[in-house]
Design goal:
351 residues, mainly beta, 6-stranded antiparallel beta sheet, 28 strands, 2% helix, globular
Length: 351
């Protein structure tokens, strides 16, 4: 494994933004940056051996700042939404930023994806560290976090999350990378075929806050228990949940999940290129977002404007609004405990 480092630029405060490139024996690569502990690029081969970048992102680090798309970023302290930016922990009510309609999203305005992390290379991995102080974006406790990226010769990208706090707090971390297995900038992802290891999902209100218990996907456009093109039912506007998200923007519950156990969440294949992606995690579910509202002033690395449905995010995480839902798996981290979660992106090609 070859790992190169280069200075990508400097923030207005004079902090160095570093770009790391991890290249395996076959020439497949991953690019990372300490701005947001972000995945910048993932280059993997198609069925003919041609390597293309399948992760959405930007050529310039300045485009990542508060971009709204969260391309490749580590988001936290709490990924996803907290209703009305409010939760109670140990009898005390906390208020966090309302930055998504009437709700809190992805840790707030200056979330983990907007800060400079300490980066280092350890043999064949890149490790990012950050200390989030007590009161950061409204969250209690000092929290130390590490995000570890391992890239293998078999084109497996594993993300390990570690965190410790000095008082009870909330932690729910994920990566917000968007994939297009035909290559970033190649068009939409509607013909790519998705299968989920999930027979239930969380219905939401029109602000993407869960209504309660998971519901079965059977008989609805949310059913990916058998492989189907992402675009087949994406515009089923007679189904309320599709109208709310303008497509897919929901949380699915992984079948057979057990704490600490790495299980399959989803698989995606691209008939055009032959590339495939398997996603595994230790977390109980994932948001699948079909990029319905992608856009902004930035351009992709290939120079075309960022367009809706040009990539999808499979964000492995705990349930949205779980701090306000005692029936959901807990996201509370106590001082005597260590937060540890894993996400594995396994790339390959179809025969």
């Amino acid at each position: 494994m070859d790992i190169e480092q280069q200075v990508w630029g400097f923030t207005p405060e004079g902090e160095a933004v570093i770009l790391y490139t991890m290249t395996n024996a076959s020439g497949a690569y991953v690019k990372l940056t300490n701005l947001g502990a972000t995945i910048v690029a993932v280059g993997v081969p198609d069925r003919a051996g041609k390597i293309a970048d399948v992760a959405l992102g930007y050529n310039n680090f300045t485009d990542y700042a508060f971009d709204g798309n969260y391309f490749g970023k580590t988001v936290g302290r709490f990924a996803n939404r907290i209703a009305e930016g409010r939760f109670t922990l140990d009898g005390k009510t906390y208020r966090v930023a309302v930055n998504n309609g009437r709700n809190h999203l992805h840790g707030g305005i200056k979330n983990f994806g907007e800060v400079i992390w300490e980066g280092r290379v350890e043999k064949n991995r890149v490790v990012f560290g950050y200390v989030s102080p007590d009161g950061d974006e409204g969250y209690p406790a000092n929290l130390g976090v590490e995000v570890i990226y391992d890239w293998s010769n078999d084109c497996e990208l594993e993300i390990t999350y570690l965190a410790k706090s000095d008082a009870p707090t909330l932690v729910n971390l994920t990566n917000h990378v968007y994939f297009n297995l035909s290559g970033e900038g190649s068009g939409d992802i509607l013909s790519q075929v998705l299968q989920m290891n999930a027979s239930r999902y969380l219905p939401t209100d029109d602000g993407s806050i869960p209504l309660g218990e998971p519901a079965p996907v059977a008989g609805t456009p949310m059913d990916f228990t058998s492989p189907k093109p992402i675009g087949r039912d994406i515009d089923s506007t007679d189904f309320e949940q599709i109208r709310f998200g303008s497509g897919y923007d929901h949380f699915w519950v992984i079948d057979g999940w057990e704490p600490g156990k790495l299980v399959q969440a989803a698989r995606v294949s691209d008939p055009a290129s032959g590339r495939r992606l398997e996603v595994l995690t230790t977390q109980p579910g994932f948001m699948f977002y079909s990029g319905n509202h992608l856009g902004g002033s930035g351009h992709t690395k290939s120079g075309v404007p960022v367009a809706p449905r040009s990539g999808y995010a499979i964000e492995c995480q705990y349930y949205p609004d779980s701090p306000n839902r005692p029936e959901y798996p807990s996201v509370v981290l106590n001082p005597d405990d260590t937060y540890e979660q894993h996400i594995l992106f396994r790339f390959g090609v179809s025969e």
